[in-house]
Amino acid sequence: MTTSSIITHPHSQLPAIDDPDIYIPPHISASDDELGLPPLPPFMEAQPFGLDAHGSLIKQVRGSTIVATVEQMQESLARRLDRELAAQWNADERATRIAQAKENALDELLKRLNHALLDPHFHLTRESLLDPSRYYSYEFNLFINDHARELSGDPNFYFHRGVHTLSGAIISLIRPLPLQQVYNLLPRFTAKLSDADVRVVSTTSNSATIRWHGQRQINKMPKAIHHRYIRMACRAYQGAYSAAPRLHSGLQAATIKETHCQLDGGEYCEWELTWHEPRSSVFNLFSRRNRKEAVPVVGSKDFSSPLVNAGYSLPTLRPESDLGAMPRYIHGALFGADESGKPISHIRGTLLFSAVQQLYESTAKRVEAELPSTLSPQERAARIEQAQSDAFDELVERINQAIVDPRCPCPSNLRRPAFLFSSRH
């Protein structure tokens, strides 16, 4: 047997798939027969990854999304078996059997995928399938999700996979922001995982209406799988978006109402999400947004820091010319293990996200002062929010440009930096 490829999900803040706070609407569990869906074809028609016929890299779906699918398959399988074997085996015996079942499921998944790939040059191994740096086609994404769902035995697999597509990095990035603004930024996050056309129709402090226009994606895949892809993607988006309140601030997951679906012939899928804050909660008592120094609501008139509000005088800073120019590139590893194998722990991630929070506050304050007084409050809020989003994207772009591609063997032979960070990943 090859090296174990059992995946333990690294994001402990993600809710369990059987968490009672994750509301799953009845339509999520509808079967293929109930929806009148055609079966999955036995073979893929298009090239699954690599360069297309025009020499362009196929970049429709990120490898991190594919890895999340494998993770969800193994986790769903493990939870199902743990329930089924509880009466027959003790904890240690169950763990052994579940571990073997995970390995077997991954082997079977690879077998099915390679069978569907007629060209042996595209056959996958465990190592290649679990490489998050790769890119794939939408067609491949459907095939792996469809087979993973069947192997997991989870009728709500697509929904749960959507929840776990949200990485720890995304969760950390969104926490400094107001929840309403998180939903306004969802299209930007989604666009980094695929070429999806997701639009926010409206948001309030406890609700959001979101639309997914799937035509852009389904036009890039065979017609025979259009409906199956819509069902898969629609359920996954609902899972990811409904989990945002829980992952952001410990609230109950959003309740979903599906008002339009492309499976019914509509131009888009539309979901109304609502959430509410519990009346009493230790988490909410100490959460960032309930403290006095919380991120200001977009459109409010006070964007000053707590020190300025309290009347403190800020010191005069030395001019940048006295500090010297910033180096063009970051040298050395940013995180993970250093050259001696020891973890890099110079600063905590919370400090970096405080800088992001301050970027939002300072940008809002500057734009608020620059806008003409004739604008309506709604227009001022919209422009401030757009400026904050643009500033965040520019920050990520600059960091990416300073990161030397780790695959480059020689510092003097610099290539375009790899995008290791993403504002929408």
CATH architecture of the largest domain: Alpha-Beta Complex
Q: What is the CATH topology of the largest domain?
A: H-NOX domain
* Rg result: 23 Å
Q: Give the % helix.
A: 40-55%
SSE order, one letter for each helix or strand: HEHHHEHHHHHEEHHHEEHHHH
Please outline the major beta sheet. Answer: 4 strands, antiparallel
Number of domains: 2
CATH class of the largest domain: Alpha Beta
Q: Count the strands?
A: 6
Mean pLDDT level: 78
H/I helix tally? 16
Overall SS class: alpha+beta
CATH superfamily of the largest domain: H-NOX domain
Distance between the termini: 33 Å
Low-confidence stretches: 6-18, 278-314, 406-425
Strand order, biggest sheet?
Answer: 3-4-6-5
Estimate what percentage of residues fall within beta strands.
5-15%
Approximate shape = globular
